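agent> fetching stored inputs for the zinc ion docking request
agent> found them:
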Amino acid sequence: MSDNEQSDRPERTERGERSERGGSGGGRRFYSRPRVCQFCGDKSIVLDYKNTQLLRGFVNQEGKIRPRRQTGTCARHQRAVAATIKQARHMALLPFVGETLS
Ligand SMILES: [Zn+2]
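agent> prediction call returned; pasting tokens
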């Protein structure tokens, strides 16, 4: 005759309050980044220093070459892109330093 009902459940309803960070001054743009290198995927893309429209997609606003993580370009083409961008810079088609946005 031993009724040992252990209903010892401490009910805790502690909810961690998530402090929402106020994102002020967001000048970031997130482009859709393809997982596959776009040059490998689309062979019709011609890497040319004159193709500044294309190259501008590979530099950030500061005029720096964007890392592979952002562009999704494979190592081989990333090098090609970097070389082409440098070429374009020499031709003054791309800025060495981007316009400073204040
Ligand atoms: Zn590639």
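agent> quick read of the result: The mean pLDDT is 79.
agent> awaiting further instructions
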